[in-house]
Amino acid sequence: MQTFDQQRRNDDIATDRVMVENFFGRLKTLWAVCGDIYRWNRKNYDAFFQTCVAVTNVHIRFNPLRDEDGDANMQYINRLRTIGSKKIRDKKKSQHKYREKRKTRLTFFLASESTLAGKAYDSETEMGSDSDDDGATSQLF
């Protein structure tokens, strides 16, 4: 059970969090460089990001944040989750396919190996198999 002060603090944090989510939603909507993978020179990223944040602040001053901005941020987060779950699903599918193929290969390999081993015991090429005396040792000389 939370105290009254803890509940009030959590409510304040929740309100701040909504504002931050709305800000990032607006930032990602306005500037693709902030909402996607940065593929340019890494040294320039800080300057680009700070410029985007500054211009977004000016944009917010003239066009206050709305709930739709938070929705844009949630859409972005959901898109990232979808991409992540698709990668995980594809990786599991690939691993399953690999394991099935490996199992098939090993089954064929072991089957062919046992067939070859069985033929080796049945062959007449073993030493002493041509001899008429059953218990005698065969000599090569």
UniProtKB/TrEMBL annotation:
Record keywords: Metal-binding
DDE Tnp4 domain segment(s): 5-57
Record field: compositional bias (Acidic residues): 123-135
Coiled-coil intervals: none
UniProt cross-references to Pfam families, sorted A to Z: DDE_Tnp_4
Sample GO molecular function, one term: metal ion binding
Domain of life: Eukaryota
Protein's name in the database: DDE Tnp4 domain-containing protein
Lineage: Eukaryota, Sar, Stramenopiles, Oomycota, Saprolegniomycetes
